[in-house]
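I'm curious: can you give me some protein's one-letter sequence along with its backbone structure tokens because I've never seen that pairing?
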Amino acid sequence: MNRDIERLNPDARINLAAQDAGSKTGPENQRVSDADTVSVPAPGMHSGSQPSDSHSYSLLSRRIGSSVFFLLHGLCFASWASRIPTIQEQLRLNEAALGTILFALPVGFFISLPFSGWLISRLHSKKVVILSSACYGLALIGIGLASTSVQIAIALLFFGFFANMLNISMNTQAVAIEEAYGKRLLASFHGLWSLAGFAGAAIGAWMISQGIGPLFHFIWIAAVFIPGLVFATRFLTDRDRTTDEKHALLALPDKSLMGLGLIAFCSMMVEGAMFDWSGVYMSRVVHAVKDQAALGYSAFMIAMTAMRFLADTIAGRFGLKRTLQLSGTLAATGLLVAVLFPQYIPTVIAFALVGMGVAAVVPMVYSAAGQSTTMAPGIAITAVSSLGFMGFLVGPPSIGFIAAAATLRGSFIALVFMAVAVIVLATVQKINDRR
């Protein structure tokens, strides 16, 4: 997947007031404070030249700017996910039909891959963030306007397309900030996405309890989206790191990164299935009342949020390998509990364990890929994320097809095997952990 997640432009300089002109600039000496500033040169400047027209903001401002887009992305996606049971009921869809329609979302993700990388390489990530976020909000309203299965599928295709384009471009911005700070921050950015996802799920549950339809719900979310976009745009990094190397539109992992990609694949298959099927599981298997069906998804998102804010600290203390092993164990345990004890309280707790389990996997795998000695960090992360989002692609529809052939409860057993695979792969994989 050509996500083109790249480092900060070499022309961008971190201005440290306390740093002498001759001090070292290696990664071990680049841990900086929020008050430090990043000067981003105007387009056309060359490395080593002094920018004549630049915008200087503190690192905290840059971090806030990128954080807003993670929040907006999570809010928008969770708003859609919280209304899946409502849309299924309105269109009278069985599990197989719903699974087929949901397949349009990851297809849109996949189609966006070469276009996203191509646009970022030519327009730079800031412009792509602005473009894709605006279209992402409009696509959400399109889902609300759809009244047939075909219309929903088409709307989801565009929704997935712009969701992934925004995901790629905002992660490009986040990696630039992480590089400037000189320490792991990616999990905290993903934590903000999860925090917004929890808020979106809570809003969705309230909207359902008040009998508000998906269209007015999504219009309300879009009304929040627009001012957030306008506010945060000014703080985004203007330029991305560029090289003279030419790469294929779809970057595939080499042998050393394949293991990391497979870990991401398994985890994101579980994560994608939870996004789309947790509410349906609560409705059809647990038989939760209508206004409580979204609470399983809320528990999943709360736990994911908390763990992502802790993940950088945990990995720093115990290492990436043990963090990934713990993650797989938590996810497998939660899924087993949900299958074996499909009652309301046990299932809510189980979904919380699954959220804790999948929370740290993708940020940690991206961090490990960024330390690759065989590929540039941006290309390595792109390669690993390609396999990861293939898992996100096949997870939700696979659950639908298995549920149609057997039962929805039985289909979650397949997710247990995916979580166990994370444990096994993390154990046998040699993980580069130099931070």
Summary: The CA atoms of residues 269 and 391 lie 4 Å apart. The chain has a mean pLDDT of 79. The two ends are 25 Å apart (CA to CA).
